[in-house]
Design brief:
Mean pLDDT of chain A: 91
Mean pLDDT of chain B: 90
Structural class of chain A: mainly alpha
Largest sheet of chain B: 5 strands, mixed
Strand content of chain B: 15-25%
Largest interface: A-B, 26 and 26 residues
Shape of chain B: globular
Order of helices and strands of chain A: HHHHHHHHHHHHHH
Largest sheet of chain A: none
Strand order of the largest sheet of chain B: 5-24-23-20-19
Distance between the termini of chain B: 45 Å
Number of strands of chain A: 0
Number of domains of chain A: 2
Strand content of chain A: under 5%
Low-confidence stretches of chain B: none
Distance between the termini of chain A: 15 Å
Shape of chain A: globular
Helix content of chain B: 25-40%
Number of helices of chain A: 14
Oligomer: heterodimer
Radius of gyration of chain A: 19 Å
Low-confidence stretches of chain A: none
């Protein structure tokens, strides 16, 4: 398989995952704000912070209103990570790898791009937003399902999985960080109730609530949610699972010994002892370190397979 | 019949569908009566379905503009163009004949140049050809074939006969659109496919792959075949990706390939370097190899010509094949066919005046308002003068151009290009529009011609310019068998059993 094709497949997966998670995040956030007591000062701007896009946002907007934030995240063509730009990136990457991606995937991506372009305004308006986001989410699920079902599970597939899992691990760690930050900012009076609401939406934004409840047999609380999303061995969006899947995919590719060796420290970091009873600054620092390691995994993969001379 | 169809006037041209107002030609009769049975609303909804299909299938072409490159949806008319199988078979034989002769010609030019020594073609034609490549002298590619893929532009004149307008032997494009047009039509007018015997077009990519694989210098079971594209900014990128996918070949850019010290070509894979045997290159000669041709080319591969000359890689089309893709050479093709094959051409040329010849040039200059003047080496319909539609100023410019560089210009009479009904405007009124046809011809060990080809339509009223970059559209091309069928023994259909033992 060509290195250049491997790289494009990898990016297709990352961007596709980004489209799905952006759609989901906006959807969940709306509900979260409805549920929290009005005294809690959580703003839409947090979504910009979670995605590390403060600088890009502030260059273009002065008011951090709901409309501006949603517009920026969904339809702003100058925001490199907006939903519309991510989707274009998926389309461009698939367009240039049409020889290895199933034919129907190309058509589904064209359809999804068309839908998004034509209905963007629905996504920005609060009234029609849910419906719009649901359609986008379904489109992404359809594409993922098609690939899983019809793509041979060969090298191209492994690169797709690698991209998907690096992006997922990154997202999950960001959501955990965002949840934790929000809780640390709570006023004394709101703590108990709001904690549950915030952790609940972190779970929901990863589609994790149902399986969290089954696996932990515990009500929603930080001491259980954090380890579940960091370490659960079966949940496909837990950081631990993503890293396991990432290494599993790498192992199937030619010349992977060096890559696996370099990825080991992430595994080790995940199994380090953490005191989950104390959800404070030290955990925040831990998540920060973990994120830096996750970012480095991209370069490990890229050095090994994408940059041939 | 709707009034629109009653009022349809084929005019002073050969109309492919309508013989006299209200009457369809024999092979299009069933199609015509079906289209007539559709209400205006149904026509509009079929047209909308076609447009949606084009967007969903992502069928596009890139247009270069000052604001950057724009990806445009492929323009398509849902009324197909119909040709009888009988006429097509004859045309196909003529196309094979033509390409065979041209390949013998190219091979001769790069080796013994017998045709020049025998005085059939004057030496100046070769001396001043901008597509002759000295670097190719003495080479003889597999099967003596240089142009493996040819797109020949055909037009139909008033008499309904096909004429060759030009041979595209460099990197002809359009075949993917021919294939996609058919897929769109099957979605849009499925009912007609049940009623009419339409010859399928789908085997092109397999035949292309077979031909390419047969060129492999390594005699191995599964040679590595790659499609070399200039990249996503090329107007035909869609086609490059499409063909690679349909053939199961690698789609590569210059930066994916490298020529090693052993003069072999390798591609950069996740497992290191892997040898490539055959390259279907969609890059012009001059950009192929910065070592030999344009030094500033970033599209090509350094050392590619070295590898080709050493016989370690097959290139299709071979470098230098474009020498026969020259409108001056075109004028000599009937003699070329006679010389190498000792046959008369099965498809005639359009009458052509060579400006290099004093007498012919005088005639051209005196009749500029009647003629079409073309530069010898341009493609895509650029740099032409269409006499009857030209201004005095344009004619003066061309007079100067021709005098300055007579070798570079030819002239042809303005053809009465055939027309076909095309749905125009919001009301989808059928109106005649001019068209041409580009079939694709393959030659390796044997020859192959597509069933029909890509029909291009000049969408503007009266216009003769069919190029998609200049407002052209396209139609599906149907080769229809109108000969009575011999009866076949009816096959018994197997009765489908009830599933899982359920009783009906």
């Amino acid at each position: 398989m060509l290195s250049s094709v491997a790289e494009r497949i990898y990016w297709s997966a990352r961007y596709l995952e980004r489209v799905a998670s952006t759609a989901r995040l906006i959807d969940i956030y709306q509900v979260l704000l409805f549920d929290l007591p009005k005294t809690v000062k959580l703003s839409w701007y947090n979504l910009v912070i979670i995605n590390d896009l403060e600088e890009d946002f502030n260059e273009r907007y002065t008011n951090r209103t709901e409309r501006n934030v949603v517009k920026f995240l969904l339809g702003d063509t100058t925001n490199p990570s907006s939903l519309i730009n991510s989707l274009n990136a998926v389309r461009e990457n698939v367009r240039t790898t049409r020889d290895v991606v199933p034919e129907e995937a190309w058509e589904l991506i064209c359809e999804l791009s068309m839908y998004t372009q034509d209905n963007l305004e629905h996504g920005i308006n609060r009234k029609s937003r849910r419906d719009f986001l649901e359609q986008v989410t379904k489109g992404c699920l359809q594409i993922n399902g098609l690939l899983f079902d019809s793509m041979p599970h060969d090298a191209a597939w492994e690169f797709f999985r690698i991209g998907q899992n690096i992006e997922r691990a990154d997202m999950t760690s960001r959501y955990l960080e965002a949840g934790l930050t929000a809780i640390l900012e709570l006023e004394e009076d709101d703590v108990v109730n709001s904690q549950q609401i915030i952790w609940g939406s972190v779970l929901r934004s990863l589609n994790a609530t149902q399986y969290y409840l089954r696996a932990t047999r515990s009500p929603v609380k930080g001491q259980e949610v954090v380890p579940y999303l960091l370490r659960d061995q079966n949940f496909p969006k837990s950081v631990g699972y993503c890293i396991w899947a990432l290494m599993h995919s790498c192992a199937k590719l030619p010349g992977s010994e060096g890559v696996l060796r370099k990825l080991k420290p992430i595994e080790k970091k995940l199994s380090a002892e953490i005191d989950y009873e104390d959800l404070g600054e030290s955990l925040l620092e831990y998540l920060n370190q973990l994120q830096i390691m996750l970012t480095s995994s991209h370069f490990i993969v890229s050095d090994a397979w994408f940059l041939q001379r | 019949m709707s009034t629109a169809w009653k009022e349809y006037q084929p005019g002073d041209f050969y109309d492919e569908m309508i013989s006299t107002p209200g009457n369809a030609r024999q092979p299009a009769k069933k199609l015509f009566s079906y289209i007539n049975s559709l209400s205006d609303e149904e026509i509009a909804s079929r047209k909308a379905a076609a447009e949606l299909a084009i967007k969903e299938m992502g069928i596009s072409f890139t247009v270069y503009t000052e604001e950057g490159n724009i990806d445009r949806a492929w323009p398509f008319d849902i009324l197909p163009r119909v040709i009888t199988k009988k006429q097509w078979d004859k045309t196909a034989a003529g196309l094979k004949q033509r390409l065979q002769a041209l390949n013998l010609f190219i091979d001769d030019l790069y080796n013994d140049q017998k045709i020049i020594k025998d005085g059939i073609i004057p030496e100046y034609v070769l001396k001043q050809s901008s597509n002759y490549r000295k670097e190719c002298e003495g080479m003889s590619p597999a099967f003596g074939v240089w142009a493996h893929v040819c797109g020949t532009d055909l037009v139909r004149d008033k008499d309904g006969e096909f004429y060759v307008l030009e041979d595209n032997l460099r990197v002809p494009s359009g075949v993917s659109y021919m294939l996609e047009n058919r897929s769109i039509m099957k979605r849009v007018l499925p009912e007609v496919f049940e009623k009419v015997q339409i010859a399928p077009v789908g085997d092109y990519s397999e035949r292309l792959f077979e031909m390419l694989a047969s060129l492999s210098p390594r005699k191995i079971k599964k040679p590595v075949v790659a499609v070399l594209t200039p990249g996503i900014y090329n107007s035909a990128y869609f086609e490059h990706a499409f063909l690679a996918q349909k053939m199961g070949a690698e789609l590569v850019e210059g930066s994916d390939l490298v020529v090693e010290d052993d003069d072999c070509v390798y591609m950069k894979t996740i497992a290191g370097l892997e040898r490539v045997d055959v390259i279907y290159r969609r890059i012009d000669d001059l950009f192929l190899d910065p070592e030999v041709f344009r030094e500033d080319s970033t599209l090509g591969v350094s050392g590619l010509m070295r590898a080709w000359r050493a016989g370690n890689i097959a290139l299709a089309n071979a470098p230098g094949a474009g020498v026969a893709d020259d409108k001056v050479v075109y004028a000599y093709v009937p003699q070329v066919i006679k010389y190498y094959l000792d046959q008369d051409p099965l498809i005639p040329n359009v009458e052509t005046y060579l400006c290099y010849d004093d007498k012919q040039r005088d005639y051209v200059l005196a009749n500029l308002d009647q003629l079409v003047v073309k530069p010898a080496n341009e493609s895509g319909g650029y740099g032409m003068l269409i006499g009857p539609h030209s201004t005095k100023k344009e004619r003066d410019t061309f007079t100067d151009l021709i005098k300055a560089n007579p070798r570079n210009y030819i002239a042809q009479p303005t053809l009465s290009l055939s027309t076909a009904p095309t749905f125009i405007g919001k009301d989808n009124t059928p109106e005649p529009r001019h068209l041409d046809l580009r079939p694709f011809v393959l030659q390796g060990k044997g020859s192959y011609v597509t069933t029909g080809g890509l029909t291009r339509v000049a969408m503007r009223k009266g216009s003769l310019v069919v190029n998609s970059s200049q407002g052209g559209g396209s139609k599906d091309t149907w080769i229809v068998d109108t000969e009575p069928k011999r009866s076949r023994a009816t096959r018994k259909k197997a009765v489908k059993g009830a599933a899982n033992g359920e009783s009906a």
